Amino acid sequence: MIIAIDGPAASGKGTLARRIAAHYGLHHLDTGLLYRAVAKAVLDAGYPADDVARASAAAAAIDPEKFDENALKAHAVSEASSVVAAIPQVRKALLDYQRAFAARPPGAVLDGRDIGTVIAPGADVKLFVTASPQIRAARRVAELKARGVAADERDVLADLLRRDERDSARAAAPLKPAPDAHLLDTTLLDIDAAFRAAVAIIEAARTGRKRG
Ligand code: C5P
Fold this sequence. Notes:
- The chain has a single domain (2-203), classed as 3-Layer(aba) Sandwich (Rossmann fold).
- By secondary structure, the protein is of the alpha/beta class.
- Helix 1 (13-24) crosses helix 10 and helix 3 packs parallel to helix 6 (88-103).
- The protein contains 10 helices and 5 strands, in the order E-H-E-H-H-H-H-H-E-H-E-H-H-E-H.
- Strands 2-3-1-4-5 form a 5-stranded parallel beta sheet, sandwiched between helices.
- The protein has helices spanning 13-24, 32-44, 52-61, 69-72, 75-84, 88-103, 115-119, 133-146, 153-169, 191-211, and strands at residues 2-6, 27-30, 108-112, 125-130, 182-185.
- It binds cytidine-5'-monophosphate.
C-alpha cells in the first residue's frame, strides 16, 4: 500500500505520516528532507540556493542514510529548500529515489508537496492536509520552543506564507491537491483527532477499492 500525503509547510502532515506509517507497518519518507539536504549542501559549500548547477549536482549526490534531521530543520535551510525545490533538474534528480522508496514492500507513506501528483500518482490513498496559516505558525512556534529555540510567531507566519507562495507558484511540480486527493483540514483538530480522521479516510478508501 502506498499512501501519499501532501500539504503546505507545518500543516501537520509529517507527524500524521509518521503515525500512519507506524499504524499500518509501512515505511515512511519525509521528502522535504531531500530538498533540505540539497539546500544545506549548497549553502555549506558557500553558494546561493538558486545556483542551478550546484543544486543539481548536490541533488545527484545526496545520501539519505546520512541525514542529520536536526541540522536540516534549521531556519536558513527551510528558506533555501523551497528555492532549490523550484529547480526542475533538482526535482528530476530526486525522483528515482522517491519512486524506488515507495515501491519497497510492504509499501510506504510519503509526505511532501507533489507525492499525489508526481511521485506516486497511482497511490492507494492520497491525503491533502491543510490548516489555517495562523494555526500552522502557532504549531511551528510550539515545536521550536520544545526544541529550545525561541521564535516570534509573526516571523514564523511570514516565513510560512513566503514558502507556501513559492511552492504553489513554481512551474515544476507545484503544491496542489491531486484531483483524487482527500482534503483533511486540521485547523480544529489536535494530532489524535487528525490521526483518527486520516485513518477513517484511508479505511473508507481501502474498503471502497475492495468493493469496486
Ligand atoms: O516539508 P518541508 O517543509 O520540510 O519541505 C521543505 C521544502 O521542500 C518545501 O518548502 C518545498 O519547497 C520542498 N518540497 C518539495 N516537494 C516535496 C517536499 C518538499 O518541493 N515533495
